[in-house]
Amino acid sequence: MISRYTLPKMGSIWEEENRFRKMLDVEIAACEAMQKIGQVPLRDLNIIKKKASFSVSRIKSIENKTHHDVIAFLENIGERVGKSARFLHMGLTSSDVLDTALSLQLSEAADILLDGLDALAKALAKKAKKYKYTVMIGRSHGVHAEPVTFGLKMALFYDETQRSIERIKTAKKVIAIGKISGAVGTYANIDPKVELYVCKKLKLSRAKVSTQVIQRDGIAEFLSAIAVCGSCLEQLATEIRALQRTEIMEAEEPFYKGQKGSSAMPHKRNPIICERVVGMARILRANAMAAMENVALWHERDISHSSVERVILPDSTILLDYMLNKMAKVIDGLVVYPENMKRNLGLTKGLIYSQLVLLELIKCGLERKKAYEIVQASAMLARQEGAEFQTALFKNQKLKKYMSTSGINRLFDIRYHTKNIDKIFKNAGL
C-alpha cells in the first residue's frame, strides 16, 4: 500500500469507516424498499433507521471469530438495534451489500479523479496560451525536425487530458452499478422492486443480469481507464524530463527554495516528480492487468477477485489522484526557457528548412526524387562542413538552375511554420 502518499480526500474513501457506512446505506435502503412492499413493519424500519450504527473496532473483534466481515458487520449493528435487526439483510447475500457499496466508493473516487484531471487541464491550457507563439524545434526520433511552438506542445497534452476526462466519465458510468438479487442473482428470496428502489435512491444503475456478484469487466474497464490516464501523464512527464536535459534545457519542473538535488552534487536540479510519475504509471498498468485477471470467476461466483481488489482499487485511485495533483503543480510552476529554445532552433544552421526547399523545387517542375537528391546533397554538405544550409544551397549549381538567391532566402522564414497555430488551438478548444 502507499499510505504515505495518500491524499486525505481520496484516502478517506477507502477507510473502513466509509466502507461500512456505504454498506449500512445499502442495508437501510433495502429495508425501506421492503417496508414499501409490506415485508418490514414501519415501526421496525424506524427503529433500524434511528439506532443502526457500527463500530469498526467492534466489527474487527467479531470478525476475529466469524472470519466473515459482513456477518461481523451485521452482528455489530444487531447489538445496537435489537430485535428489529432481524429485518436487516433479509433475502440478501453478502455481495449484494459489498458490491453495491463498492460501486458507491468507486463513483466517489471517479469524481475526485475528474477534479484532478480538470485542474491539470486548466494548468495546461494556461501554459498553452502563454507560449502559443514561442517557437522551438520539433523533434522526431529525438532528432531536430521542423519548428513547432511550446504552446502547441502544451495544447497537445491539453487535448489528451480532455480524452482522459471522457474515459473516466465513461468508466464511472460502467462501475456505478448496484445489485440486490440474492445468492445467485435469481431474486428467489427478494423482490426485484427492492433492487430498483435501492439503486434509484443511491443514484446507481442496476445490473441487468447478475450472479452473486456484479461482473468484474466493469472494474477492469475502470482500472484500464486509470492506466491509460497514467500513461498519458507518463508521456507528459517524459517530455518534461527530456526537455530538462542539460544539453537541451528548454523547460524544467519547478525547483523549490530549500530543495536539494543530490547528496553529492550541490548543482543538481533533477526532474524527480516527473520521474516518480513515470514509475507510478507502471504500477497502474500492472493493476489494470490484475483487474482483467479478475474478470473470470467460477460459475456464479468465487472470491479470488476480492483480495486483489482490496489492493488494486485503493492503490490505483490513490496513485492517480497523487499523480494528477503533482503534475498539475509541475505544469503550473514549469520553468520555460525561450532563449534556449531559440538557441537550439539554430543548432542545425538552417537544415530545418530542407522540406520547404524540396517543395519549392517540385513546384518548379522537378520530379520529387530528383528534387530530394538535390536538397539532400546540400544538406549533407552543410552538415559535413558545419556551414549554413543557405550557403550550401547557394553553392549547388543544380539547384541554381531553378531558384535564385532571393528565392532561396525567401524560404527561410520561421513564420511559415506557425501560420496555422491559431487553427490548431481552435480545434483543441483553446
From TrEMBL:
* EC code: 4.3.2.2
An example molecular function term from Gene Ontology annotations? N6-(1,2-dicarboxyethyl)AMP AMP-lyase (fumarate-forming) activity
UniProt keyword annotations, A-Z: Lyase, Purine biosynthesis
- Whether Transmembrane counts among this entry's keywords is no
An example Gene Ontology biological process: 'de novo' AMP biosynthetic process
Q: Write out the catalysed reaction.
A: (2S)-2-[5-amino-1-(5-phospho-beta-D-ribosyl)imidazole-4-carboxamido]succinate = 5-amino-1-(5-phospho-beta-D-ribosyl)imidazole-4-carboxamide + fumarate; N(6)-(1,2-dicarboxyethyl)-AMP = fumarate + AMP
Homology family: Belongs to the lyase 1 family. Adenylosuccinate lyase subfamily.
Protein name listed in UniProt: Adenylosuccinate lyase
Read off the Pfam families from this record: ADSL_C, Lyase_1
Record-annotated Adenylosuccinate lyase C-terminal domain positions: 349-429
* Native species: Candidatus Taenaricola geysiri
Instruction: Extract the InterPro entries matched here.
Output: AdenyloSucc_lyase_C, Fumarase/histidase_N, Fumarate_lyase_CS, Fumarate_lyase_fam, Fumarate_lyase_N, L-Aspartase-like, Pur_lyase
Q: In which pathway does it act?
A: Purine metabolism; AMP biosynthesis via de novo pathway; AMP from IMP: step 2/2; Purine metabolism; IMP biosynthesis via de novo pathway; 5-amino-1-(5-phospho-D-ribosyl)imidazole-4-carboxamide from 5-amino-1-(5-phospho-D-ribosyl)imidazole-4-carboxylate: step 2/2
Q: Which domain of life is it from?
A: Bacteria
Gene3D superfamilies the UniProt entry points to: Fumarase/aspartase (C-terminal domain), Fumarase/aspartase (Central domain), Fumarase/aspartase (N-terminal domain)
Please give the GO cellular component terms listed in this UniProt entry: cytosol
